[in-house]
Write a structure and sequence with these properties.
Elements (H helix, E strand, L loop, with lengths): L2 H8 L1 H17 L25 H11 L22 H13 L13 H15 L6 E6 L2 H19 L4 H4 L7 E3 L4 H9 L7 E3 L12 H10 L5 E6 L11 H10 L2 E6 L24 E5 L11 E6 L3 H8 L29 H36 L4 E2 L7 E5 L7 H13 L6 E5 L2 E7 L7 H14 L5
Parallel strand pairs: 2-3, 2-4, 4-5, 5-6
Antiparallel strand pairs: 1-7, 6-7, 8-9, 9-11, 10-11
Bound molecules: pyridoxal-5'-phosphate.
């Protein structure tokens, strides 16, 4: 065996211990560690001929890159919608790497790790109040989940006119209706050949809303004259966490012919809050649903689930079947994830989710969700109370979308204010544009965030504000 490989195998215990100690020290100082860095990346280094071995490589990493690691899973990383990492999910994620299963089939020759995935998507379904007529699976993020669901929707749409799009390619323009889709759905339409500019935009409701206007939706459906289409609806828009009216959509579904997809990347978790679960009423009537796990579920990247109704299994298989590999057997008879989603070889992404759901249960997740919502309302109320700040939309769930009031609200000034806040390294928030106005978004999804963190950010806002008003 190569010398470095041999030596590493004999010092495995030491290696694991060093990594474990380093991980622990990182996690322990996560709250104090900066959430952004001004460190410049070193010049890319070359490929060593003779390897260093892991212990020396760890030193090299610590020297070159470790200081640049930002506290993305820390309590004051409020940019995008960035979840933390629960202890149980870290344990599950480590073990995913160590066991290194190639998760495909649930029974038979070889491993059965897909049975863990099926059990885990079952747990997630239960947590989210979804019936077991949905098949779940794990992909890398909500983007890929939207892609997976919309790929099956595309196959369905082709089938309505007797076309097998997976085999024939697109034969016609696909009709897609939506009001405020996440950018990743638009990207998915581009990837799927449906064309991101072929969307038929539906109005949003009046009164500072991002939810779909049901009247306009029905008008547009009528104009299609019975042609089938795909509806992409939102359970939580990113700017203001608005929800489409799923009961109204379910009622339209009884009358008209369409594939109903819901992007519930983080908003699906609102079902855990008694005060907000009504927002998801009737969502189980959709054909497909996207849920992110590396956001509100607080598991490490890359982790999301799709849920697609079982009744569409044949379409799902015709979309994703790995059909030129005869040794894999009949895709309908032999359950195998590689015939159901984009990837072939894949890691056991279910494990961190399985660990965290078992470790904290429904009560743990209810706490996380309610805690985040409380903090968003706390920050929102503070912003509303400050004459130098303003909310761009009411706080509906776990995100605060705010800005500086006129005349300080030009893009340059708002972005300079955000940049000054982020440069402190104590808070990280995202820039946005909402209804034509520049703004700042704070998204609460991390279980580590406490009232003290919110208080600290309020102080920072007050401290920097005079320079920008
Ligand atoms: C974050 C998000 C996505 C994209 O998810 P990734 O995990 O970044 O791929 C899609 N839809 C919504 C509503 C989101 O919030």
């Amino acid at each position: 065996m190569n010398k470095q490989l041999q030596e590493d195998l004999s010092s495995l215990e030491k290696i694991m211990q060093l990594v474990s100690e380093q991980g622990l020290s990182y996690l322990k100082q996560l709250a104090e560690r900066p959430v952004s860095t001004t460190i410049e990346a070193p010049t890319p280094a070359g490929m060593p001929g003779k390897g260093l071995g892991t212990i020396e490589t760890l030193k090299k990493f610590n020297d070159r890159w470790e200081p640049a690691m930002v506290a993305a899973s820390g309590p004051r990383y409020w940019g995008f919608v960035t979840g933390g990492t629960t202890p149980a999910s870290i344990a599950g994620d480590w073990l995913t790497t160590i066991y290194d299963q190639n998760t495909q089939s649930a029974k038979g020759d070889g491993d059965i790790s897909a049975a863990i995935e099926l059990e885990t998507t079952g747990l997630l379904r239960e947590l989210l109040g979804l019936p077991d007529i949905f098949l779940g699976g794990f992909v890398t993020g909500a983007t890929m989940s939207n892609f997976t669901c919309l790929a099956v929707a595309r196959q369905w749409l082709g089938q309505q006119s007797g076309n097998d799009i997976a085999k024939e390619g697109l034969t016609q323009k696909m009709k897609v209706l939506t009001a405020t889709p996440h950018s990743s759905s638009i990207k998915s339409l581009a990837l799927l050949g449906m064309g991101s500019s072929n969307i038929l935009p539906v109005n949003t409701m009046e009164g500072n809303r991002e939810a779909i206007d049901i009247k306009d939706l029905e008008t547009q459906i009528r104009q299609l004259n019975g042609a089938p289409f795909i509806l992409i609806s939102s359970a939580g828009t990113v700017n203001t966490v608005d929800f489409d009216d799923f009961s109204a959509i379910a009622a339209l579904r009884k009358q008209y012919h369409f594939w109903w997809h819901i992007d519930a990347a983080f908003g699906g978790f609102a079902i855990l809050s008694d005060a907000h679960k009504h927002l998801l009423k009737d969502w189980e009537q959709a054909d497909s649903i996207t849920v992110d796990c590396h956001k509100w579920l607080n598991v490490p990247y890359e982790n999301a689930a799709f849920f697609i109704k079982d009744q569409h299994r044949l379409l799902q298989v015709s979309t994703f079947q790995n059909s030129n590999a005869p040794y894999l057997g009949d895709p309908l008879e032999n359950f195998n994830y590689l015939n159901l989603l984009p990837e072939n070889s894949r890691r056991l992404k279910a494990l961190p989710v399985w660990f965290t759901l078992n470790a904290y249960g429904r009560e743990g997740y209810r706490y996380i969700v309610e805690n985040s919502i409380r903090q968003a309302h706390d920050l929102g109320a503070f912003i509303q109370s400050q004459p130098g700040l303003c909310l761009l939309a009411p706080v509906r769930l776990n995100t605060v979308c705010f800005s500086l009031p006129a005349p300080a609200n030009d893009t340059e000034n708002v972005m300079a204010f955000l940049s000054a806040l982020n440069k402190t390294g104590k808070i990280f928030m995202s820039p946005t544009h909402y209804k034509g106005q520049p703004g700042i978004r704070a998204a609460f999804v991390n279980f580590r965030t406490t009232e003290k963190d919110v208080a600290l950010v309020k102080e920072l806002l007050l401290h920097l504000l005079p320079l920008y008003t």
